[in-house]
Each structure stands twice: as C-alpha cells, then as structure tokens.
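HUMAN:
Could you generate one sequence with tokenized structure?
ASSISTANT:
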Amino acid sequence: MIRQLSLNMLFVSLPWNVLIIQYCLFLIFYLYILIFKKIFLETKETHIFFMKHCIKLGKAAKALNDSPVGAIIVKDGKVIAEGIEASKSKHDVTCHAEIEAIRDIIKKLNITDLSGYTMYTTHEPCIMCSYAIRHHKISEIVWGISTGEIGGYSSKFNILQDTTIQKWGNIPNLISGVLEDACKELHK
C-alpha cells in the first residue's frame, strides 16, 4: 500500500526547535548585514559628500591666493557654517578655514558649545585650530590630508586627543583620509 505524503505528515516530522533556531539566526544575520551596510556605506557616502563641499571652498580660498583650505560644520546632515582660509587676504594668521567656520556658527547660532556637531576640512586642523575645536567641544572631525608637524593630531602636540585639560570634555571622533587625493590636488 502506497501512502500519499501529506503536508500534515511533513509538519509533524520536522524538528521545530531546529527550524526556529535556524530561522532566527538567519534573521539576525540578515538584519546585521542591513544595519552594517546602512551605517558604513551611508557614513562613507556622507563623508565624501561633505568633503566635496570643503574642496569647493578650498578652491575659492586658492582663487584669493590663500592656502586651499575649506571647512564646514554640519549637524543632522545640514551644513550650518562654512569657512575658507583667509590668513593672507585678511592679513590675520588666525583666519584659518576651521576657525572661520567656528566664527560663522557662533555668529549664526549664538552658541559656543558645539557638542554634537561635525567639522569637515580639507586639511588636518593645525595646532591653533585644534585648540579652538577642543575649546568648543566639536564632537567629530573629518579631514582629507594630514599636515604633519603642524597638525593637531599628527604632530607631537596631539591636541585633538589630549586628555589633560578636563574642561575640554570628550575626545572628538577623528576620521582622516577622506578624498585624500582630491584634497592633495588643491595644491597643484
């Protein structure tokens, strides 16, 4: 006698606990991949988008015969403030792009605590700019090229990661090398 296989027989014979565990593991893995892609890829694309804005500002500074540095301050995906290098054109050594962006946001919003804001700049902030960044508690700094012995991170005066000045609070998140080659091109 041949018995016809029915769905009821199939369901009764399956080890449900194993299937449920496998299904849950699959869902966890799938969600992990989706979240990782969203965070990693969107963050990378965001950094590239805002660095392109800085490069345009750097070109504007270069057109004024200043160093080709541009900086912006961003919050919630919006550019809040901008700055271009203007030390030569304004005859003022403190007119670096990063400090000009900080001046711009303070003037616009009348705030000095910039926790939760991100600064993008074509060049690693120098020691002077790094002091201003830490003083105003900017949470994240993203730059294209390092500046070596004058850098607030890469020099022996690593102000961006200093923990000895308590009132500066948390160390900002630092991301370097975004569109590095395009930022180097500004000097040609």
